[in-house]
């Protein structure tokens, strides 16, 4: 058994401590023409974990997460959220899940309050409950001062925060976030980290996709490394990285050492 297989089996076998997994992916596969984007991936996200999914651009992370939450239909395989099938019981699975896709599109001619209220009404949240949740989210996300600002005029950091607010609005047990910190300023990033850490501390589970290794090491307790549509290692952070940093382990498993050493011929001294 290879190192990658051993580590993947550590995360993919059975439920942790007898609890139903927050997210279980079984044989997820997606083909685009002759290109295999995701190749029969098995993965288990333990309940209560802060799970990091890392990989180079084009590794298949976004495709995998899109299938996992029901945004993209797989060619084969299954996804379950706390035991509810994303494709067989979508209403239950999606009620348990909050999603922040990469490049999230949202109604831009609404203010943050109007957007959250609109999303809440679509989800059927009681108006009295909804008003309180919207106000609390605006306060926690530090968006109250932008009360009259349309989403189209939001900065990147503000967009990430209002996107996370829409994902949290209905009280999910699992958050699936695709590159939530990309192009976010340090102040907004610190606020997002605090919110996510609080969510996990309160019993929630988070799946975070990123190609920034130090960020994943800082936040996550469990990780999976993807390359070429496959999971090449998965398990507790300390187990996967061993005595090296996550970035060093990632480069070794993905095979970037040779390119990193070569450099550019015309810049050689």
TrEMBL record:
The keyword Flavoprotein does not apply. The keyword ATP-binding applies. This is ABC transporter ATP-binding protein. Keywords: ATP-binding, Nucleotide-binding, Transport. Residues 23-253 form the ABC transporter domain. It comes from Actinoplanes awajinensis subsp. mycoplanecinus. GO terms for molecular function: ATP binding; ATP hydrolysis activity. Pfam families: ABC_tran.
């Amino acid at each position: 058994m290879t190192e990658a297989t051993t580590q993947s089996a550590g995360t993919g076998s059975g439920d942790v401590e007898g609890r139903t997994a927050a997210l279980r992916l079984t044989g997820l596969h997606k083909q685009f023409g002759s290109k295999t984007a995701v190749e029969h991936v098995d993965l288990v996200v333990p309940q209560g974990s802060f799970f990091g999914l890392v990989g180079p651009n084009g590794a298949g992370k976004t495709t995998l997460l899109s299938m996992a939450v029901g945004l993209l239909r797989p060619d084969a395989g299954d996804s379950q959220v706390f035991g509810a099938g994303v494709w067989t019981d979508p209403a239950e699975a999606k009620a348990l899940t909050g999603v922040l896709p990469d490049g999230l599109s949202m109604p831009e001619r609404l203010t943050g309050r109007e957007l959250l209220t609109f999303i809440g009404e679509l989800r059927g949240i009681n108006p009295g409950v909804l008003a309180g949740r919207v106000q609390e989210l605006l306060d926690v996300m530090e968006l109250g001062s932008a009360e009259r600002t349309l989403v189209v005029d939001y900065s990147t950091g503000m967009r990430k925060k209002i996107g996370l607010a829409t994902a949290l609005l209905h009280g999910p047990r699992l958050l699936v976030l695709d590159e939530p910190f990309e192009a976010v300023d340090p102040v907004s990033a610190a606020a997002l980290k605090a919110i996510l850490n609080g969510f996990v501390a309160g019993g929630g589970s988070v799946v975070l996709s990123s190609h920034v290794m130090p960020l994943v090491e800082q936040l996550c307790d469990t990780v999976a490394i993807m390359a070429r549509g496959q999971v090449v290692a998965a398990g507790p952070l300390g187990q996967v990285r061993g005595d090296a940093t996550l970035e060093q382990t990632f480069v070794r498993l993905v095979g970037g050492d040779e390119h990193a050493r070569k450099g550019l011929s015309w810049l050689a001294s």
